[in-house]
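Recap quiz, item 2
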Amino acid sequence: MTSFDQATVERLQQQAQQLRRLVVDLTHQGQCGHPGGSMSLAEIMSCLYFEVLNIDPARPQWEDRDRLILSKGHAAPIYYAALAEKGYFSPALLGTYGKLDTILQGHPDMHTPGVDMSSGSLGQGLSPALGMALGAKLKGKSFHVYAILGDGECQEGQIWEAAMVAPHFGLNNVTVVVDKNRLQLTDFVENAVSIDPLGDKWKAFNWHVIEIDGHNVAELLAAFAEAKETVDKPVAIIAHTTKGKGISFMENEVSWHSRAPSDAEYDQALKEIMLACKGDF
Amino acid sequence: MSDMQSVRHAFGEALAQIGKVNQNVVVLDADLAPATKVDDFGKAVPERFFQVGIAEQNMIGMAAGLASLGFIPVTSTFACFATTRVLDQIRVVVAQPRLNVKMAGAYVGVLAGKTGKTHQAIEDIAVFRGMPNMTVISPADANEMRAAVRAMIDYDGPVYLRVSRDPWPVFMPEGQFTIGKATVLCEGRDVTIISTSMMTAHALLASQKLAGEGISAHILNVSTLKPIDVDAIVAAADKTGLVVTAEDHNIYGGLGAAVAEVLGEHRPTLMRRVGVRDTFTETASNPELLGKYGLTPDDIVAAAKDLLARAR
């Protein structure tokens, strides 16, 4: 197992909190968006954008870059937070979220710098990831392709069409991250239509499965390293997370799937994030 | 019009020829290659031919991913599946980002080899005309198909290509097709027939029958349904002041509707639409289907005479 220095882990934890802060900002000022499923992704996005991905924000179309597809496109707020923090566009642009003519659409659009594939209709993101991974093989490129899926999204049939195809084509250059935050729009996933045992399903489709705590930065980094080192199969990382993670009144609350914070909720959320960071912004 | 050639075979041959030269062309097949004729490409360029299984939704997504890397993916399945089965996938990851994916739909219209209504695509034009960023091509014969495949590959953007199944008369010139341009096939002065796909051959046969009764038909072949050739349609309507449309498609949302929209805005003209009259179709031989669903040359003749009578 790969070990990571404490400084890196702390930096990525802080970065995750900063992404949470921006999600609260975005959804409050735009009075729209999906905070719950964004918060569950904070550590995952922090690790990918600020440690794992081989990308260059100055060259968003760089041919050899790693690709990332946010298949659960409704988590756009934290996507835009990560892209802005990484330098794909000015953080000032985050203020345009939810306003006419913004490049930051309600769901990700390829015309936004840093967005490798449009998404937003659930179940669709893994298939383009496979196309990219296949294209990399055809072109002799060594870049890696990441697809971030929601757990509720795994109810979509197309996910399993793609899951079946990836090992068949030997696409060992694609890694799936399932943000298993256990909630979907209407209810807990297990009450809607249970997808468990999820890891066993991916294993049965001939994927290498890694199950981790999706809020534990060290575990995430180790999983991403293992994914890169796994050459005989594509890898599915099942990241066990909490929807709304980090904001007490959002955690495990179905209503925070899609809801904008009021002024009072905004203040409370920022306070909690500051406390979690020990005021270290 | 004595020469008969299979339009789908012309499609397969043209695609294979282009694939041998253009390294960016890749073909994805959802388990129908021997029927859709993309097996020609598979034999010619096996390294860029991918059997993706009976999973059309995933096929469209994979094509989008390949297109994002600069490849020119051609997806192939039956038209019925190429449209409604994968419509949301096309909308979100192909049309909205305007990715360079070419979607070939085989067995358009009612002539689908006795497969019946599940496989008879009579809504495909309507579906893609209503979708922004889409180009819709519907060649009339094998010659126009060969040229259309080349034009489709050269064009940068999403294209839906209608591919007919059966051998059909060949009458179009070779190597002539421009996206967005309709072609006058026959100058006339009494009634205009505007047609697409296999119905253009029937328009020509209808014009011969009409000529026998002293009626001169002006014929316009519209092989790009979107973008539609407004100038050519208005000019063709101006020639006679009466327009019959003929298509292997529902009369709603297809060529007839597109022509009515153009003429309604630019040159209100008395019209009749020949096509499937808003009903699902069935399993039968080609002549039986064409007869029952009103797609014969005689149906076009009757529509033309009806218009002439109404105009009198």
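The mean pLDDT of chain B is 97.
The two ends of chain B are 33 Å apart (CA to CA).
End of item.
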